[in-house]
Structure formats: C-alpha cells, structure tokens
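Job type: complex structure
Entries:
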Amino acid sequence: MNQLVGGIEAGGTKFVCAVGTGPDDVRAEVRFPTIAPAETIGRAIDFFRQQQVEHGPLAAIGIAAFGPLDPQPGSPTFGTITTTPKPGWRDTDFVGPVQRALRLPVGFDTDVNVAAVGEARWGAAQGLDSFIYLTIGTGIGGGGLIGGQLLHGLIHPEMGHIRLPHDRQADPYPGCCPFHGDCLEGLASGPAIEGRWGQPAATLAVDHPAWALEAEYLALAVVNFVCTLSPQRIVLGGGVMDQQHLFPLVRRKVQQYLAGYVQSPAILDRIADYIVPPGLGSRAGVLGALALAQQQLG
Amino acid sequence: MNQLVGGIEAGGTKFVCAVGTGPDDVRAEVRFPTIAPAETIGRAIDFFRQQQVEHGPLAAIGIAAFGPLDPQPGSPTFGTITTTPKPGWRDTDFVGPVQRALRLPVGFDTDVNVAAVGEARWGAAQGLDSFIYLTIGTGIGGGGLIGGQLLHGLIHPEMGHIRLPHDRQADPYPGCCPFHGDCLEGLASGPAIEGRWGQPAATLAVDHPAWALEAEYLALAVVNFVCTLSPQRIVLGGGVMDQQHLFPLVRRKVQQYLAGYVQSPAILDRIADYIVPPGLGSRAGVLGALALAQQQLG
C-alpha cells in the first residue's frame, strides 16, 4: 500500500504537486499558479519526471481537481474538467496527458472527494464508511464516502449550492453566487463574508457578529446534510474554518436546529467528535491525492 | 431470485402484508390497522403461517417499516423500531419475533428505502445505482440507493426535515412539524397543505394557488437533494403526488432554481425522465418488501 506515488491538488488559482508515501514521508513538493491547461499540466508532469530521476519510479498519480469534472472511470469523458467557467479549462482532458506522459495509473476526482479520501486514510475520518468533507473558503464544496464509496451519481455533488433559510430582514446581504444569489456558497463563503461586512473575513474580530451569522448558515447546511445523508461524521475544512471559534458555535446551533429529532448519541452527547476540523488540516487535498494514487494500485 | 416470499409494509396507521414472487404474482394480500406491537406483528406472523399452508413454504420475509429504526445488520439493536413517538412502539424489536416465529431470513429497512428497492427492481429506477425515492404524504421521507447501496450511515436519512427558504410574507403559514416548524415536512406534507388552506389537499382545485406553492417547496427540496447526492433520478411518490399536475410544475422550478449550474442533459434536456412518479405507484412499499425479502437469499 505505501508505494511511492505522486499527487496533484489542482486548484483554480494554484497547483500543489507532491511525491511521497504518506503524511510523514513527503519527499518533495512544489506549488505554481494555475495558468493555461497545457502549460500547467505540463509543469506538473515535468515535476514528476524529475522526481522519478531523484527518488526512483512512481507507482501511480492521484489528481484532486476543481470542477465540474467527470470522475467516472468508463465514461467517454472520464478524466476531463467539463463545464467550468474558468477561462481556457472547459472540456480539458486532464488524465489523458498525464497518463500518456508518465505511463502510470491515474486516479481523478473532485478536490473535496479526494480530501475525503485523505481524511479517511490518515485524518479525522479513519475507520468510517459514511462521512462528508466540506470546504468553506473561496467557494464551498462537499464530498465524501457513502457506504465506503466516493459520492458520484449523476455527476458529483455540488453541496455549496443548496438553498437555505435566509432572513433578509436580519441579513439583507443578497448573496454572491453568480448562479443562485443566496445559496450556501452565496451566503457563507469567504467572499460572501467579505461582501457582507466590507472587510476580509480573516480581519474580523472573534466577537464580530459576522461569526454568529456564519455559524447559523453553516449549521443549517450541516442539518440538511445530516437529514439527507446521515453521515457518521462531518469534517469542516477550508480557509474560513481556520477560525477555530466557529466550531463550538456551529455545533451548538446544529443541536438546536435538529431539536433532538435525530436521536443519536453522536449528535446529542458527542457532537465535538461529530463536527470536526480536518485531521490533515490544509494538507487534506494534496495528501488525499497521494492516498487516491495508492488506491489505484488495488 | 423469484422465490415465493412475504413482505410487510408497516405503516403508522396500517400494515399491508403480501405473499408472492413479484408485481405480477401476488398470491395473497391483507391489510389491518397498526395497534399495539405484539398484536400487530402477531397478526402479520399468523397471515404468513396461513399462507405457507395454502401456497407452500416462504423463502424469506422483507419488512418496510416506519421509523426511526435500526437497519444495520450486526448492530445490537438491528431490527428494532427505536425512538418513534408512536405510543407503545418505542424500542420495539420487530425482526426478532418474526424470525423466531417463522425461522426465515428477514430483511428490514425504512419504508422509503424499501420502496426504493422495489422501484430499482421493478419500477422507475431499474438499472440505476444512485437515485432517491421521496414520499410526500402525511409525512415526508426519503431513501434510496447510492453507489448501489441503501442509504444508511449514522442511522438513516430523514429527508423530510431539511430546512428551506420560507418567505413568511408570501406564505405566513408557520409549518406543522412538531420538532422544526417550517422544515420541508412542516411546509409541504399533506397536513401542511390542509393546515395552510383550511381544507384537505385532495379537495383543492387544480388551479388553486396551493399547488404552485407546493411545487416551489418540493422543487427547492429536490434542488438540495441534487446538490447533495447527485442522484441519477428522483422518484416522487406518496399521496400528495397523486396530483399528477404537480410534476410539470416541480420540474420547471427545479430547472429554474438550478439555473443551469448542474450541466447534465438529464436535468437540462430530459427532466421529465429525471423527476418521475413511482413505476409501482402506491404499491412500491409492499412490493419493495417482497424485493427486499428476495435480496436476503443472495
């Protein structure tokens, strides 16, 4: 299982590429900006080639990518980034060039599904077969394992775009999602916090009312995910969740909104172990990509 | 696969028990009111014993039950109805007495998960491995297959209790859920329609404004389930959905609320095949119980 592999965390603004066998053995890592597909993917391939010279052959590559994308092996468009609004990246074959250049098995999934793989392998979701991983940052996304399998289905989830109660008298901010206005991402992403309060989220004091409101939207979202998926745990990552003081606020409001309806000790008595930060912190994506690569080896 | 089996659809007000091999071969069926557990379960057992005398041995029993319940084989409380508010039924072992009396393999799951099994086997979800089944009636519930497996996780979903946008100026009705007020069930179940408009849903004319509002809540719920689970199809059953004119309204509003964000032809071009009535109609539960029984035979 612990063969030397490569991982790519392909974000909308930067790529992180790493080579290693796990969190305690990352042999090399590089970051560079996401520019045009051919250059950016080419740079990742060059990095892995160079690492193979230094550290010996890699056994597989795992890719955690921004989406929407096609994660279904066997589909004619498997391995492509599909309908993204990101200029130049629409209908970009990502797996194909990597596979042809390196001649290795390549795993490919959404950034959040791959982060979930990392958390299941080495982080806060070890031993669980049904949990979700949410990232709350520039955007909001979610993935996870259900019955031991990554969530796919029609395409893959877009958890950031669920609709929530929005009291426009208490919070007149209209939301910042270009598609939906006040969906979860429109109300609770980093840019939404900045748009509502006129300053970057990271500069708001711990006692600023922004955080109680943020916790309310996140709690409503968590309640909806609990009622829809019945996960065994919910991992909340992403830049906004670096505000650790959000966790107790979210947990309390989740209990309050569920109102005792889901009678599980995990929620009623042990919620601090139910709604948790990622065990791998901000490294869940790139380490998840290594774990996904190792999964390709059966 | 098509051995003679028994199925129980155990609802909060009535039990339906059937013996057969599938939708075209139901040999016997009986209905009786849900009273105290020992009497009601005993009556089901008596029915199956008598059927075995008439039709020969049954190979297994499937049970579709109201919940909350424990559907996880291997759990110490597997086969019990757990925290239900229904008088007398809390912590009732359902599978145990059936298994002891009939000495047969017994399958046990939520009414909606079992209806989903029926739809997958003989109804509107044949060939799909990720879809959801929602019932909109006296209550609202949802289940389904994700990656080919029934949705369980921490317990099982409670899809009727998600929170949705509720414009109290346009719709001042506070909702009727005793736990959450204006959750999905509180806003859109049969009793909610009756409570809001002062007359039973079934007596409201097709052009009554009740239906546009109902379609709006159902569409918001479907949007949230699409964004969370990415199902390949959504089956809408239950008494409220006997109003067939709701389907086009819900479909149109789902497209409107998703606003092109989920770029799948299933949603953009073929939504009439994406949001559908149950192929087995109101028989999905009891026939699903037969299908669940047959699944116990490997």
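Summary: The longest strand of chain A covers residues 14-22. The CA atoms of residues 211 and 246 of chain A lie 7 Å apart.
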